Amino acid sequence: MINHLVRTRRSSEDFPQREHLAQKIAEIAVDPVEVPADTEEMVINRVIDNAAVSAASVIRRPVTSARRQAQAHPVAPGATVFGIDGTYSPEWAAWANGVAVRELDFHDTFLAAEYSHPGDNIPALVAVGQHVGAGGADLIRGLATAYEVQIDLVRGMCLHEHKIDHVAHLGPSVAAGLGTMLGLDEETIYQAVGQALHLTTATRQSRKGLISSWKAYAPAHAGKIAVEAVDRAMRGEGAPAPIWEGEDGVIAWLLGGPDAEYTIALPGQGEPKRAILDSYTKEHSAEYQSQAPIDLARRMREKIADFDAIESIVLHTSHHTHVVIGTGSGDPQKFDPSASRETLDHSVMYIFAVALQDGTWDHEASYAPERANRPDTIDLWRKISTVEDPEWTRRYHSADPNEKAFGAKAVITLLDGEVITDELAVADAHPLGARPFGREQYVAKFRAMAEGVVEPAEQDRFLSAAAQLASIPAGGLAALNTRVRPVVLDKAPQTPKGLF
């Protein structure tokens, strides 16, 4: 990897394009390096994972609204929308499928200086690949680039510190991945990356306080913007430059300011793109820092005979967990049983209470209004708090994958004074966890989420196509669409008509 120092430059400085971060990203996007076998394997796993969570969310209201928006834009050749027949404008297909993937907060994650769900790259690349007649090998190459770019940016450039949403790294990664998949030249990719970044910088209010359905839409919007940016760049249209380093650019005014410096490590020429292997998926439908606490709660419940005998529970954890999904956020909504699902899945206090009581986690039942409003759950929920532990924060930010952790230590104090303590560094499904996810687990997750939603024969067809992704010929990527049973789609809610 090559470390690139990125900082603000005055307009009067001699700062040639070859030194711009957007140019460095364009260079790795055009590098014809072979995709390693383990990277290809993981790309396939994540395509399956996205289909699984899309099946689980297909008739939820935000997904239904996005799908109906896409259906208002039919195009030939076009791209497919999850669950249905027909072809639609690729940017709208990317939009609809991106919402389906993100709605349940149930797909892959990478956490470092910033947060990310790099599987958000997949809907946009698949949609454009279908529209232009790309093949499976093209898609794999594009996704290897997209994951690499987003994860490398996440490692080196913190956005949330400045209240900028993490999708600001997604716009450039989608643009770069599309550039690789389509075989575009450096200049076109450079301009597309700049446009995509400029148009996807937004505040983190989408993940603060009472969280709305926009949390699911935000990554889909970034993907849609990146598709449109690539289209414009292919037509010769330019971008603000230098987009990160400019005197009035992203670093100077949205991030650390004119004196800030960031180190972004990107693969050198001929170096394989392997970043996807450092990311991890979710076994449970909840914010990633809740994954290990859910597993910890399931383990600790065996030591508690009477939940009414609990006086308090304190979760000692990282700064991020404490301030984003813990009591350090200062969000009273995280204790509100009438809060939105999006809010509850960002409340580790709620999640730990339900997992402790139930010993399981379900993407629907665990968030149901009747579940959140159970008096005994509310009572337990309000006894839970979080505190930052510097050691958990250090491990969260560790560059050593064998040490990096997203867990917590739980201290449960009973009314009689007994204290029960346990801790878990990584979720069971993490590569270093008790039950790491491999192909078998990804397939099982898909089968579980698709049960009753997708016919068994259609499940088999999709899984066979995904497993042979590299062999899908040009024009064959429609095989990655999974059709949903009409009787299921008939249950989708009626939504008000919009403009389209």
From TrEMBL:
Top-level taxon of the source organism: Bacteria
Transmembrane parts of this sequence: none
Pfam families: MmgE_PrpD_C (PF19305), MmgE_PrpD_N (PF03972)
A biological process from GO: propionate metabolic process
Listed EC numbers: 4.2.1.3, 4.2.1.79
Keyword Nucleotide-binding: no
InterPro entries: 2-Methylcitrate_Dehydratase, MmgE/PrpD_sf, MmgE/PrpD_sf_1, MmgE/PrpD_sf_2, MmgE_PrpD, MmgE_PrpD_C, MmgE_PrpD_N
GO molecular function, one term: 2-methylcitrate dehydratase activity
Domain MmgE/PrpD C-terminal per the UniProt entry, residue ranges: 284-469
This protein's pathway: Organic acid metabolism; propanoate degradation; Carbohydrate metabolism; tricarboxylic acid cycle; isocitrate from oxaloacetate: step 1/2
Keywords of the record: Lyase, Tricarboxylic acid cycle
Swiss-Prot/TrEMBL catalytic activity: (2S,3S)-2-methylcitrate = 2-methyl-cis-aconitate + H2O; citrate = D-threo-isocitrate
Domain MmgE/PrpD N-terminal: 19-262
Coiled-coil regions listed in the entry: none
Subunit structure: Monomer.
Similarity comment: Belongs to the PrpD family.
Name the record gives this protein: Aconitate hydratase
Native source species: Gordonia insulae
